[in-house]
Specification:
Elements lengths: L2 E6 L3 H13 L1 E7 L6 H15 L5 E3 L13 H4 L21 H7 L5 E5 L4 H9 L3 H4 L2 E5 L14 H4 L2 H8 L5 E4 L1 H4 L6 H10 L2 H21 L7 H10 L4 E6 L1 E3 L10 E3 L12 E7 L1 H12 L2
Parallel strand pairs: 1-2, 1-4, 2-3, 4-5, 5-6, 6-10
Antiparallel strand pairs: 7-10, 8-9
Helix pairs in contact: 1-2, 1-11, 1-12, 1-13, 4-5, 5-8, 10-11
The protein binds alpha-D-ribofuranose and calcium ion (CA).
The site of calcium ion (CA) has 10 residues, from helix 1.
Length: 302
């Protein structure tokens, strides 16, 4: 099994990604960051998820905001708590530490991936403190950005938009990097049929996941007119555990930090030949969506 640390901002699709990762990888640690909801909530949600999964994965909390400016949250998508309308059970879990950056640096192993599914603040701070860190891990799989178009603005995807300066540092770090952007993640979408299947399965985890997805489908019906949601964060996990499902191409990727309309945009250079900068990321273009969804369904207990 692939070893990984999940850096996340749970977050409903982060929750699905954490369930999937614990099902099909060796998750050695979780680091949390401010993103969908404030850091205290993302950390509480990560701890609750380890309790629900019955795993002892350590949770280290990290950055409470971006490198520059104020935090950007998404309660309109994930709810004020970050877990929709789910009422979390009591548990006795506490964070293993509040210095995610030191944990990321100390836990670096040549066979350990970092799967980043929230704003990239913790990773950028780790790189700032030790630029060689990226050579001491297996690689970085990011849910973030897009080859074209955004979700928070016409140009920017949430994880990049929430901390563009951090994203720019990560993309410029020289890391072995896979980018699962919106162009990729929207190929893998859930349905109410899956919610019904999970509810029929009866197991507590399946019932929990059904509730999260049902909530998200309600939000998406309001926002986009469709009761479906993209498996954004789970795709970044699968890019590590099941790379054979993906078509990835090396591309120069830069992050816009100054543009009035384009701040937070991932600028993917698709020009052929020797034009522009050298490729610094593997950009995911295609995924075998049926097989990806089968893996997600299996992990959730469908
Ligand atoms: O744009 C989607 C990303 O933003 C996902 O990681 C979701 O959890 C939010 O953080
Ligand atoms: Ca996320």
């Amino acid at each position: 099994m692939k070893r990984m640390i999940i850096d996340c901002d749970p977050g409903l699709d982060d929750a699905i990604a954490l369930i999937l990762a614990h099902h099909c990888a060796e998750v050695v640690g979780i680091t949390t960051v401010s993103g969908n909801v404030p850091l205290a909530a993302t950390t509480a949600n990560a701890l609750m998820l380890t309790a629900m999964l019955g795993v002892d994965t350590p949770v280290h909390s990290g950055a409470a905001g971006p490198l520059v400016g104020a935090p950007t949250y998404a309660p309109h998508v994930h709810g004020e708590s970050g877990m929709g309308d789910f009422e979390p059970p009591g548990h006795d879990r506490t964070a293993a530490g509040d210095d995610a950056v030191s944990y990321l640096l100390d836990a670096a192993e040549s066979d350990t991936w970092v799967v980043a599914v929230g704003p990239l603040t913790n990773l950028a701070l780790a790189i700032e403190r030790d630029p060689d860190w990226v050579t001491r891990i297996a690689g970085i799989s990011i849910m973030g950005g897009s080859i074209a178009g955004g979700n928070v603005t016409p140009a920017a995807e949430f994880n990049i938009y929430a901390d563009p300066e951090a994203a720019a540092r990560v993309f410029a770090s020289g890391a072995d990097l896979v980018m699962c952007g919106l162009n990729l993640t929207h190929q893998v979408e859930t349905s109410d049929a899956l919610v019904a299947e999970l509810r029929a399965a009866g197991a507590p985890l399946a019932h929990f996941a059904a509730g999260l997805l049902d909530y998200l489908h309600g939000v998406m019906a309001e926002l986009l007119g469709r009761r479906a949601t993209a498996m954004h964060d789970p795709c970044a996990v699968l890019a590590v555990t099941h790379p054979e499902l993906f078509e990835v191409a090396p591309r120069p990727v830069a992050v816009e930090v100054d543009g009035t309309l384009t701040r937070g945009m991932t600028v993917v250079d698709e020009r052929t030949g020797n034009q522009g900068a050298a490729a610094n990321a593997g950009v995911a273009y295609r995924i075998d969506a049926p097989r990806a969804m089968a893996l997600v369904r299996g992990a959730l207990g469908a």
